[in-house]
Amino acid sequence: MNTFITYILLCASSVAASDCDTRSAIDVAVGPKTGNEIACGIEAQEMIAQTAIRPRDGEYLKISCVRRSERG
Predict the structure, then answer these.
(1) Does the residue 72 lie in any domain?
(2) Exposure check for the chain: N or C terminus, fewer CB within 10 A?
(3) CB proximity list for 8: less than 8 A, separation 6 or greater
């Protein structure tokens, strides 16, 4: 079964959105596993809304949904 791992990335504005990933981010929050990209995006937005995660000047948030294969 394929699932998606949700990552909320806090990145510096000097990093292009296409280059912002778990290695280049200032901070990374891992969200729940979901069954599809739509659920991943929605749940990430809900998680952001319920926390104090807010970018400061010179930072931005990016949601990343990474496909993972589960076995078992």
Answers:
(1) no
(2) C
(3) 28, 29, 31, 44, 47, 48, 53, 61, 62, 63, 64
Q: Is the pLDDT of residue 1 over 60?
A: no
Residue 26 phi/psi, 5-degree rounding, is -70, -40
Q: Which domain holds residue 35?
A: 2-67
CA distance linking residue 39 with residue 1, whole number of Å: 15
Cα Rg, the chain, nearest whole Å: 13
Q: What would the pLDDT profile of 42-52 be if each residue is shown by its tens digit?
A: 999 999 998 88
Nearest to 65 by CA among 4, 2, 1: 4
Number of domains in the chain: 1
